Amino acid sequence: MSANHDVVIVGGGLVGASLAIALDRMGLDVGLVEATPGGALPAVFDQRNLSFAAATVNALTALGVMQRLTNPGGPIRRIHVSRAGDFGRVVMRAEDYGRDAFGQVVVARDFGEALEARLGELKQLTRYRPAKFVALGASTDGRREVVITGGAGEHRLQARLVVGADGTRSAVRQALGIDVTEHDYQQTLFVARVRPAKVPDGSAYERFTDTGPTALLPRGDRHYGVVHGVARDQADAVMALDDTAWLARLQHAVGWRAGRLLESGPRSAYPLIQVLAQKLVGERALLLGNAAQTIHPVGAQGFNLGLRDALTLAELIGDAAMDPGSDDVLQAYVQRRGPDREQTLAFSDGLARLTSNVSPLMRPLRSLGLVAAAQATPVQSFLVGGAMGFRGQVPELCRSEVR
Ligand SMILES: Cc1cc2nc3c(=O)[nH]c(=O)nc-3n(C[C@H](O)[C@H](O)[C@H](O)COP(=O)(O)OP(=O)(O)OC[C@H]3O[C@@H](n4cnc5c(N)ncnc54)[C@H](O)[C@@H]3O)c2cc1C
In the chain, what is the greatest distance between 2 CA atoms, to the nearest angstrom? Predict the structure, then answer.
């Protein structure tokens, strides 16, 4: 079988599915290749709690996805940042920035269901699933061949642009011969849902300890989503804790500002690595989302950044009107993603390394850093602007106002 498309997206995860929706509304003929069979959600739509920045909420609303959430997200109205054993503390309030919320907490599984509902409404989209990307062929007559397998065997698709949205271990990236740099943070992140005695009031808590960060994120279902980083060599022991000991550990890590934590759902664990593609484009092909950059989740930026990759691409294709895989589009993509990518990477990586640095000499500096942030409006504005996703040249859809 062979088929022609304007754009073939490999990977129907968080970013690939969002891109398919954005391109469909521009009238493009898109093929979406996903390894997971129809009727099931890709494994990445699990119980992790996603903080959507305000820019992301705006864009996903404009794309008709937020409206399809069956479980509402939890608005983040205040962010408390503190460090165990240090004296600094920062509280940022959305109202001080003229907003109702900095963003929303959405469970990845709920988001997957909303994306699936929206994808099901698209008229022009062709879905290939279960289908695995196998190889890229030659580029002839302005189209690049994509070889996939699945269902009835091998298919050859022709695309004016091939998009690698196939995650951290991207096969498209490998087929393009693009190298990566990797950093292992030697940390494991635990994620769970916890029920507090006090109903969450829109406050998110980010608490740093010597072994890693812990965050409580206010979900829409009267629970907190907890994110707890531990040194890798402690991960097995933490996974083996019974619920009482696990809750005691969390309570110790976050303190008492959010009140008593009563009950926890199941824990899942993620080893933390950074994987950065050294190039974003190849012939009639480009990378976005985790395939382009997998970053430490401490700053809650990975999907927010990947969505801005996708929306920028959609905007550039719209501007180019005709050939989505032209050199002009590819070069403009590289240029426009540069500053946001660099700043977000620096922010997330810096936060990750700083929070796991146990040197006593660093402590006063970190505390002073928090105090400075607490007092300096420009510092806070910079942090808040980044956290809300309004950094540099932001895609237009992120600006569609949803306050
Ligand atoms: C614990 C945790 C918490 C996080 N919290 C946040 C947060 O609060 N905010 C935030 O913005 N980000 C967060 N992130 C990051 C976020 O999950 C990622 O940035 C996001 O999943 C990247 O989406 P993606 O579509 O690029 O890749 P993925 O979501 O990994 O999707 C890749 C897709 O490609 C498919 N695929 C892979 N190989 C092939 C192939 N050969 N052929 C066909 N299909 C293929 C997979 O099945 C999958 O569906 C968090 C991450 C973790 C681990």
Answer: 65
